[in-house]
Design a protein that fits this description.
Elements lengths: L1 H23 L3 E4 L5 E4 L6 E3 L2 H9 L6 E3 L17 E2 L2 E2 L1 H6 L4 E5 L5 H9 L4 E4 L4 H15 L2 H22 L5 E6 L13 H8 L2 E3 L13 H7 L3 E4 L8 H4 L8 H4 L3 E3 L12 H17 L5
Parallel strand pairs: 3-4, 3-7, 7-8, 9-10, 9-11, 11-12
Antiparallel strand pairs: 1-2, 5-6
Helix pairs in contact: 5-6, 6-11, 7-11
């Protein structure tokens, strides 16, 4: 009886070791944001990221140790700075990518050249295309990337935490008196976002009204006269870097603008709003604080 018990114990121990190994080697199938079905025979071990926000997401879902290459400006988290570079997101060095022998490439649909994405696919490398437009899309992308990398549990937890933070902000701010907002993406040419852009949902969550949300293009080019005519109550911009609010301060010369008169020119570091990552929850929280400050500055209070 003792010998039999020991046999069962040994068998159970072996099974406990084999189950996770079998799960790790199981095929993975997901559909990307471009509608392509992607199938891996087993979770990816060598991932190349083709945009800074993708690099950040891979780390956020617990798969940073699988990254073997990334594009320029992949600077978060700090350890991403040590990854080999494969060019900029708008122009990928395909030779460098191939030398890294990736078993998965994660691309940015509106940032990477479509011809380069197709070339990589023609070479037989699995390519997952990311393009979230809403907060739910960010969470979904996190979950799918985590599945491809074999870190589904960590990805699910990170995605849910992100959505919970957004929902808390929505509950607190979305139904407050609306604030008319102009969000500046770029300076020359002057660019903003329409209501299909992810940043527009941040404005909506905070009880804001995107003054150019009705335009057709996702990132429309503007002239200053159109902004002056729209006369937003708040102007928010990301500036040229993490601590350079130059573009926002430049609006001070138009003294008749409501945003200028009420000192509602606000800077939010671009990495917190202009990257499709869980850190956009931090950027949204900052935006909500600034729109609330604008409400408190209304003369009728």
């Amino acid at each position: 009886m003792i010998k039999k018990s020991r046999t069962f114990t040994l068998a159970g121990s072996l099974l406990a070791l084999l189950v996770p190994m079998m799960a790790a080697a199981s095929p993975v199938t997901v559909e990307d944001d471009g509608g392509h079905e992607l199938r891996l025979d087993q979770p990816a071990q060598r991932i190349v990221s083709l945009a800074p926000h993708i690099t950040e997401v891979v780390y956020a879902v617990g798969a940073g140790d699988r990254l073997v290459g990334a594009t320029q400006y992949s600077d978060y988290p700090p350890e991403a700075a040590d990854l080999p570079r494969v060019g900029g997101y708008s122009r990928i060095d395909l030779e460098r990518v191939l030398k890294l022998e990736p078993d998965l490439i994660i691309a940015w649909r509106s940032g990477n050249a479509g011809s380069q994405i197709e070339r990589l696919r023609d070479l037989g490398i699995p390519v997952y295309v990311s393009e979230p437009r809403r907060f739910e899309g960010v969470a979904s992308s996190m979950r799918r990337i985590a599945r491809l990398a074999g870190t589904a549990a960590a990805g699910d937890a990170a995605a849910q935490d992100f959505l919970d933070r957004i929902e808390a902000l929505r509950d607190e701010y979305a139904h407050r008196p609306p604030v008319r907002v102009f969000y500046q993406v770029w300076e020359q040419p002057l660019m903003t976002i329409n209501d299909q852009h992810l940043i527009a949902e941040a404005i909506e969550v905070c009880g804001g009204d995107n003054v150019f949300g009705h335009l057709d293009r996702l990132v429309p080019r503007m002239d200053r006269e159109a902004v002056i005519e729209a006369d937003p109550e708040v102007i928010i911009g990301g500036g040229m870097g993490e601590d350079r609010p130059d573009w926002v301060r430049a609006w001070e010369r138009w003294e008749d603008l409501t945003a200028v008169q009420r000192d509602n020119l606000f800077f939010i570091a671009p990495s917190l709003l202009q990257r499709h990552t869980p850190r956009i929850a931090e950027g949204t929280a900052l935006m909500c604080e600034k729109l609330e400050r604008a409400r408190l500055r209304r003369p009728d209070r």
